[in-house]
Every structure is written in C-alpha cells, then in structure tokens.
C-alpha cells in the first residue's frame, strides 16, 4: 500500500480514538481482554502513520478496534488491505473438474434460491470442526458462525454437496443445532447432488448480527476424506478450521492451503497433541482456505475437485467446498 493508504488509515484511526475519549493505554487493556493484545507503542505508531498493521494477528486487532471504537465493520481494515499469503506459492490453475459437476453445483445453488453472493448472509466469524473417525463409516462436520444481515428480512446460507462417482450416493444428513432451521432442500440422487437452505432464526434488520450452528454428517470411510475446505465471498473477521482424527489411522503430508485473488499458498502443518490440524485466519477473504492431507495406505486426493470451490461467480469464491474429499460444500 502506498503512502496515501497509510495516511488515510492513520487519520481515521486517530480521529476515532479522539472521538472515543479513550487513552491508548485503556484501548490496549481492552483489546487484551478480547484476546487481541497490542502494545501502546504499536497503537501510537499506527495512529501517527509510522507503521501499518501487516500480519494476520495485527489485522485481527484492527477488526477488534473497529468494534471497540464503534466503527462500521471493515471501515479501517479496508484502508490496510489483506495480509500477504505465506508459504510456498502455487501456480494458478483453471477449472479442472468435470463441467457437469460444476453445472450441477451451480444449479443446486439456484434451486435453493441463491443466484448471487448478495443473497448470502455475511459470515463474520466462522468455526468448522471436522471429526474424521476411522472406526466409523459416518464423518461429522460441525459449523458455528456469526453472520451479519446485508438487508432486512430473512437471513440465509446454503450447504451443497456434489458427490463423486466413486463415493456412496447417500444424502448427507443436515441438523440445525442452534439459531437456525433447515428450509428448502435439493435431493437429486440421479445427479449425485444434495443441499439445504439454512434460515437464521427470526427476522433481522440490515446490519444486525446473529449466531447459528449446524451439523453435517456424511456416510463415508475416513480414507474417503482428504481435506476440509471453505470458501468465503467476503472478508471475515476470524475463521478457524479444525480437523480432529479419531481411531488408529492418522494422516500424513498435512498442509494448510489459502487462495485469494492475490494468489495461492501452501504450508506444512502437523498434528497437535489432540490429534488435530488447525488453520486460523484473521481478516481473510474473499477466498478459499483449508486443510489437506493424505493417508499412509496410498489414498490420493482427486485434483479435479479443487476448483469446485469457485463455481457460482466464476473466479469469485462462493460459499462451498469440494465433494467428500474436502468435507461438506458449506456456506
């Protein structure tokens, strides 16, 4: 970002701090209480224009600052820009999947009433926990989201799956856990496509925030799943994607993946002491992020599924994820 962007950010931040009547020390303490620690010196540098927030953690602080200072979401972050992708780069690719799968995915979204990204709720905070259990033939994906209504009325999100020919043609089971109900459904066994419309409880005013949780259970062996992906059509404040592995089988060659309009990156990641993989991002989007792995018995992931993430809006990612190899196609 050029000098002009730096000056605009500093000016807006300084003005907001002055209007709040809070000292930098108080702001620092309150951000720390929100698990967004930042020093007084750093805040001083930001408001004076000597430096800009640059990393994922710093941009998460900016999101918390917007809320603390009573500013609209993204009003400061948009003056900073997105963080640079880290890890080794990946060559840009075009759509590699079968055109029929791409068309089915788009048509399923349309059948659920999602013609464009404007019809999706804005996902502000996202958490997915995938439980991959080698002792079971059902794999579970739990989602918790905080969303903001873009217009007054009913707030909606889709969850769509297009199964591959080598996968059991069994409809995923969708369960609304909290703050939402399941609306319209797509059940197309002849096209191996399934999906639902998720309706946030109550009628929301434009800009109002709500939380919801739902679960997707898919009939599959653990080795049928080699990734967990998610796409966002807009920038989110915080995203957390976790995969927990249960049973004797453990993944190998694990990596975290990011894709935005700026490019793609891949970096290695290891299981933690809980047998989990984790990917955390602040101020991410629009784009696709996820965790991928392989299995010791030689199960390989199908590369042609990768681009099913970017269907409904051309390059612009729409909520969703690849078929079973990457877990649910979720909003």
General description of the model:
This protein is α+β, with helices and mostly antiparallel strands and 331 residues long. The chain folds into two domains: 3-81, 434 Repressor (Amino-terminal Domain) (Orthogonal Bundle); 99-326, Immunoglobulin-like (Sandwich), CATH 2.60.40. It has six helices and 14 strands. The chain has helices at 3-20, 24-33, 40-48, 56-68, 77-80, 99-111; strands at 88-89, 122-133, 138-148, 156-162, 173-178, 180-188, 193-200, 209-219, 227-232, 236-246, 251-260, 263-268, 276-284, 287-295. The chain has a six-stranded mixed β-sheet. A five-stranded antiparallel β-sheet has the order 1-12-11-14-9, with no helix packed on it. Strands 4-7-6 form a three-stranded antiparallel β-sheet, with helices on one face. Strand 6 (180-188) and strand 7 (193-200) form a beta hairpin. The radius of gyration is 20 Å and the shape is globular. The two termini are 31 Å apart.
